[in-house]
Amino acid sequence: MKSSERNFARRIDLTSLQLFVAVCELGSIGKAAEREFIAASAVSKRLSDLEATLDTTLLYRHTRGVNLTPAGESLLHHARSVLFSLDKMHGELSEYADGVRGHVRVHASISAIVQFLPEDLGRFIRSNPEVKIDLEEHLSTEIVRAVQEGAADLGICNTAVLTQGHELQTRPYREDQLVLIVPRRHPLARRGAVAFEDTLDCDHVGLHSNSSIYLAMRDAAAAAGRAIRLRIHVTGLDAMCRMIHNGLGVGVMPRRAFELMHGVGDLASVRLTDAWAHRKLELAARDFSTLPVTARLLVDHLAARAEAGVALATE
Predict the structure, then answer these.
(1) For a FRET experiment, which of 17, 59, 184, 220 has its CA 20 to 30 Å from that of 37?
(2) How far is CA 71 from CA 6, 20, 56, 205, 246, in A?
(3) Are 257 and 237 in contact (CB under 8 A)?
(4) Domain, as residue range, for 206
(5) Do residues 274 and 177 lie in contact, with contact meaning Cβ atoms separated by under 8 Å?
(6) Is the predicted pLDDT of residue 71 greater than 80, yes or no?
(7) What is the DSSP secondary-structure string of the chain?
(8) In terms of domains, do 216 and 261 share one?
């Protein structure tokens, strides 16, 4: 390595590169500072120092946030490559740690958390007590973004939100079936199965407006040339059941989640015949091979649990 190259490498610090990438991804110094738990003034100072080191302007600053200059676009590409290589190095070196320890950041949808993860993660922790799992519940779209940006090592979500160009690797996890939840005395409760279109004359209790379930419902209603008669949005499945029990409408949720509610209200479930009601949940990561050894152990465990679950379901 030439002397000039060594001097350049010494003048660039990784923290500034990480903060630069965070600002680019979020489009705002303030938002990046909040996510990285650092003062906005400190982020701004590091970016100014980085520009001084490189002797070029990287960002156009304005009242609504920041935009990349051509030089900034080039640095963003190289910074991501450098940080990705460091993640890969960390993953490989972690295999030499004394024993399996560390922590894994997991973002998962409410469907995965309610239906499958308590048992699957419980088994993993009992076998690997030194591993800490930071589990957060998020919408599927937010999970994809968190994994892409490095805020989560592993995502577990509905694959319907994984559009082309997401640049994530995926592995199968579980499948679930959406059902219509109605009061037990509701006319639809007497039917063995129902098309979602046939529910559109009813008031609905819906999940968050950006949840994958609600987005699928909205698209199905639009395809039928109808609109959902939404009475209320709720953030949890137990709240949905209580609202339906008290006459505010009908709702859609995963069948196993409803069965695990243990009788929250006098309710019944009716199978939805729509193709979108059968869903696949998948594990998502930027690159499974570069995950730290603890994260790869968790991925292998969840994949094995999924295969065991499928085998039991088909026996």
Answers:
(1) 59
(2) 21, 13, 7, 49, 59
(3) yes
(4) 177-278
(5) no
(6) yes
(7) --HHHHHHHHH--HHHHHHHHHHHHHT-HHHHHHHHTS-HHHHHHHHHHHHHHHTS--EEEETTEEEE-HHHHHHHHHHHHHHHHHHHHHHHHGGGSSSS-EEEEEEE-HHHHHHTHHHHHHHHHHH-TTEEEEEEE--HHHHHHHHHHTS-SEEEEEGGG--TT---EEEEEEEEEEEEEEETTSGGGG-SEE-GGGGTTSEEEE--TTSHHHHHHHHHHHHTT---EEEEE-SSHHHHHHHHHTTS-BEEEEHHHHHTT-SSSSEEEEEE-SGGGEEEEEEEES-GGGS-HHHHHHHHHHHHHHHHHHHHHH-
(8) yes
pLDDT for residue 140: 86
284 lies in the same domain as 254: no
Mark whether 116 and 252 lie in a shared domain.
Answer: no
Neighbours of 205 (CB within 10 A): 24
Q: What does the block give as tokens for 271?
A: 């199978």
Which residues have CB under 8 Å from 119's CB, separation 6+?
305
pLDDT at residue 269 greater than cutoff 90: yes
Mutual angle of helices 293-314 and 117-127, in 10-degree steps: 130
- Show the tokens assigned to 247: 């006459």
pLDDT of residue 10: 74
Q: Which amino acid type is present at position 146?
A: A
